[in-house]
Design goal:
Helix content: 40-55%
Number of helices: 17
Order of helices and strands: EHEHEHEHEHEHHEHEHHHHEEEHHHHH
Number of strands: 11
Structural class: alpha/beta
Largest sheet: 7 strands, parallel
Shape: globular
Strand content: 5-15%
């Protein structure tokens, strides 16, 4: 049987997920055509991708970078700019990989689904902030979301053999695993002295700075609880987090009869990326393959929610509903950015987010305009708290 070729748009091409997606595409030149890419300010890296894959459309964030990029890629490449450009690229391929960092990925998510595309989603913030709006365009004929996050991709695989209805009555709970990050086992007193450099030393995964900081606070796992709820139609209180430092079991599904199905592999983001690109086929590269003839241990423990208060904040946002998850994500983006800029300490991130959530203002969330208003208000409050701390 002939291989079906699919076109791919890779948005966030120069980040961690983007570069690993390129590695997958290099191994499968007969299956995929990379037709569009986008990046932020790593113009030389972006131009190198355009030349290597002969990409015909490229997106950038700023108009002032157009001339420099044009000189690098030549006259035959269409250059699009800003959120509108990202949205246009997201409607231009069979598969759209959304690896844009943070809330900026929302136009990609919405445009890809509204155009009936397969969305390979590595941008959890857009889904978390805009869950009700995403759900409406998700019903577009042909539209589907396949999660690139290793935990949610694992759950997708564990649910593949289940015939459960929406709400998953056959599922008791989803179990997300967490490595525990660089500070697993640290006391609150030790965490008070933790540095940003310490936080960026993740024990098992190589990721971008923002998600690595989120992993160190366990905010990443809290956001994943919200993401799992939105992706799989399961209430957040049926999503459990367990710490699994080996990062071999990527997540599990417990069914009502007590059976638990898990997905296991070595940590390698190329496995979930390849799964999302290749579905319904599996690409034959054995990323993450385990050697079961060599002894290894699998251990699990509950998270320390007193030391890592970001996780309870996420469950509270789920309980509040409405725009509360959008406020949580926006406040966290501001606090993490301030930490990476050296304006606040690592220990200040969660208190800043908590302070914003204490001021949460419920309101309607039925349009993109209302979502942007909520996002702006949460960021305004977070920036004010950053100034107080700084």
């Amino acid at each position: 049987m002939a291989t079906v070729r699919r076109s791919v748009a890779l948005l966030g091409a120069t980040g961690s997920v983007g570069t690993q997606t390129l590695d997958v595409l290099r191994r499968e030149p007969d299956r995929f055509d990379l037709v569009a890419v986008a990046g932020s300010r790593r113009l030389r890296e972006l131009a190198a991708v355009v030349r290597e894959f002969r990409v015909v459309r490229v997106g950038i964030a700023r108009e002032q970078d157009r001339a420099e990029l044009r000189e690098m890629v030549g006259p035959g490449v269409e250059i699009l700019v800003g959120p509108e450009g990202l949205a246009a690229l997201a409607a231009s391929a069979d598969i759209v990989v959304n690896a844009v960092v943070g809330f900026a990925g929302l136009p990609v998510t919405m445009a890809a689904l509204a155009s009936g595309r397969r969305l390979a989603l590595a941008n959890k913030e857009s889904l978390i902030a805009a869950a009700p709006l995403v759900e409406s365009v998700r019903a577009t004929p042909g539209a589907e979301i396949l999660p690139i996050d290793s935990e949610h991709c694992a759950i997708h695989q564990c649910l593949a053999g289940s015939a459960g209805e929406p709400g998953r009555p056959d599922v008791r709970r989803l179990i997300l695993t967490a490595s525990g990050g660089p500070f697993r086992g640290w006391t609150r007193e030790q965490l008070a002295r933790a540095s940003t450099t310490d936080a960026l030393r993740h024990p098992t995964w190589s990721m971008g700075a923002k998600i690595t900081i989120d992993s160190s606070t366990l905010m990443n796992k809290g956001l994943e609880v919200l993401e799992a709820s939105a992706l799989f139609g399961v209430a957040a209180d049926r999503v459990t987090v367990v710490v699994h430092p080996q990062s071999i079991v990527h997540s599990m599904v417990e069914y009502v009869d007590g059976a638990v199905i898990a997905q296991l592999s070595r940590p390698d983001m190329r496995l979930p990326i390849a799964y999302c690109l290749g579905m319904p086929d599996r690409l034959d590269h054995a990323w993450g393959q385990l050697d079961f003839t060599s002894a290894f241990a699998l251990t699990f423990e509950p998270p320390d929610v007193e030391a890592f208060a970001a996780l309870p904040l996420a469950y509270e946002a789920a309980r509040l509903g409405g725009a509360a998850p959008a406020w949580l994500s926006a406040a966290n983006e501001v606090a993490v950015a301030a930490c990476l800029e050296g304006r606040v300490a690592w220990r200040d991130i969660v208190p800043i987010v908590s302070g914003v959530m204490d001021s949460y203002e419920p309101g309607p969330l039925s349009s993109i305009e209302e979502l942007y208003a909520h996002d702006a208000r949460a960021r305004e409050l977070a920036r004010a708290l950053v100034e107080v701390v700084a």
